[in-house]
Specification:
Chain lengths: ~220, ~220
DNA sequence: CCGTAAATGTCGTCG
DNA sequence: CGACGACGTTTACGG
């Protein structure tokens, strides 16, 4: 990883064109080949960047030092350097990697194992049930043999209700499945999503991730 | 802006929980208060971060140096530091700011000027036709005097079809306009969006940005 | 490699 | 402050 603090101006020509006038910025060059140009704000997002795979060529033009970064799509990042104030390289070694907990995939997995928390006596038909417009998170059968489509979200927003609505529309055309009703399951459901769901006849269920995880815990299973 | 290269381990507790075992990484502390932890890959995205507004407290715990970053939502980023390999601060001064030249606004403008590329003999009623739920990109009249609502996107995704569907629902309630049909125009239309559009009776048109621009080009207008 | 959905999305703008 | 849409979205995952 190379860290450069430099007075520079930048032009990006690619999916859009963008320009940065001369100023002092951080140029971050990573081992994966990516280049990003940071100001002292905007959280972690750079002003400009080039994602890997790409190539950085340090050249000298009429106006002085010019770095040219290109990728295979022909996008270009041109960095004209006026003055370098700092330049250091560092070997970071191997990154062991990030472990995450609490994402939608886990929630879906836990609910698949414990569909009874959504409805008494329900059984799982399958996870990621395929349709023409994408997979339904969970497809279940209730005690009366009726089909239930379940959309799982970490945070239940209006988009999720729309998504489930589309699935229901399609599934209800399948004579073998119809009538199919919908359940919107999330750790938190926004009021607007709840309203829309009610309007569409979709049931909302707030799920307790910690409780599901607790029940799923191997320790607990012993009892 | 402060740049620290350090052997560290990190825990994030917030919208999810995440953990990074001990390794060497870049800690980037910006003047806006943000903290981000970068490995030597993943383009510009950090492994972990805290967006401003937040507060960084450098403390010493039982296990050595511990940096605690918190925000107002109670999210926490805990950075345990084993060894600092580099630590430098830099005054970047004022950032003049980025200027962008967008594509999708121009696409709409070009199509407004050249609605005939969407349908033979069509005429523009108006751009940004207002409705209760937002403006329709383009409203046109075809050769038979029927109304056409057009949604313009750079990339045609399923969301755009949903958006147009909502407009059509509203516009068709207006007796003076109804019946209104829909056209989904984009440089690229995703298969899923295409399927949904077909299902909704919405026509898809792939537009050639370069060709439109070429036709619009002042040089070309001379002839 | 393409297509799709998730994301600690982030970042504007507009009520 | 919250919603709504755009983003050079990026990123991970599955066929």
């Amino acid at each position: 990883m190379r860290l450069v603090i430099a007075r520079c101006r930048v032009d990006y020509v690619g999916r859009l064109t963008a320009h940065l006038p001369m100023a002092t910025r951080l140029l971050l060059i990573k081992a994966d080949g990516s280049v990003s140009i940071h100001a002292d704000d905007r959280a972690y997002k750079p002003l400009n960047w080039m994602s890997p795979p790409c190539e950085l060529v340090e050249g000298t033009g009429a106006d002085g030092v010019l770095w040219t970064v290109t990728n295979r799509s022909g996008e270009r990042l041109l960095i004209g350097i006026d003055e370098i104030l700092h330049d250091s390289s560092h070997d970071l070694g191997v990154e062991p990697g990030l472990s995450k907990d609490g994402v939608e995939a886990q929630l879906q997995s836990l609910l698949a194992e414990q569909v009874h928390t959504l409805g008494e006596g329900w059984s799982l038909i399958r996870r990621e049930y395929p349709t023409a417009i994408g997979p339904v998170d969970l497809l279940c059968r209730d005690t009366e043999g009726l089909t239930v489509a379940i959309e799982v979200k970490r945070r239940g927003d209006i988009d999720g209700v729309e998504q489930l609505t589309r699935y229901l529309e399609l599934l209800n055309r399948d004579e073998l499945l119809a009538p199919v009703r919908g359940v919107f399951a999330a750790q938190e459901i926004r009021p607007q999503a709840r309203t829309l769901a009610a309007d569409r006849g979709i049931e909302c269920v707030v799920v307790d991730y910690e409780a599901l995880k607790g029940t799923d815990d191997p320790e607990s299973r012993l009892f």
